[in-house]
Specification:
- With 267 residues, this protein is an alpha+beta fold.
- It has one domain.
- The protein is 35% helix and 12% strand.
- It is built from 9 helices and 8 strands.
- The strands form 3 sheets. Strands 1-8-7-6 form a 4-stranded mixed β-sheet.
- The chain is globular.
Amino acid sequence: MISRRALLSAGLALAAPSAQAAPRARLWDRWLAEDPASGIAVDHTLWAEVLAAHRGQPADGIVRVDYAALPPLGGYLDLLSGVTVGRLRRAEQFAFWCNLYNALTVELIRAHWPVDTIRDIDISPGLFADGPWGAELIAVEGVALTLDDIEHRILRPIWPEPRLHYVVNCGALGCPNLPALPLRAEGLDAQLDAAARAFVNHPRGVTVEEGRLIVSSLYDWYAGDFGGDDAAVIGHLREHAAPPLAALLAGRRRIDADRYDWRVNAV
């Protein structure tokens, strides 16, 4: 029998649902400040240009990035580093943090290219560190931040929104696609819905094989964000399922297995 460790080393994982979970969402209240009346819009033009030039979506529906040809993203990241987040309204903040997370992830992989998986970028502090998520990568308002800070201490606790997971990209083939356009406050709900539908209805999100319901490991790692148990996760999936998938999910209350492909999402 092939061990789970061997599968993970190969970048592929298939397992029965487990109690393993992502880091707990722990609010960093320093980032709660907002200005509901603000008309400030962060300029994400540089990020839009990068996405247009170096993001591709082949026939299999999984977005790839041309990391080898990608220019350094320092100019855009410097721009975001200079933003005073507390002067923005909530929707603008959400777009800011998601775009920052995605740009940092793309820049990390570019800077360490070539890699087979983002987990090979072991720059997080600690003897048993895995990947880059615990490394301080940027300062915003003079405060050093890690990817874990952005996702688990800012985004998830301030916006308890399950569709968030469809618009932050970890640079892996198993992850929801890197958005084609920067997230923006205007039309944000439509962007989130479109991203949810795209992932849920793709085989790496949900599939039924030989009668077994197999889902992305995202729904295991973040089960609490999707309702806390199999029935709630399946209910969430039904909300975004196209008719063919909805028919396969009808009457189901149990997830049989989850899987995730950690190989880098490169062209």
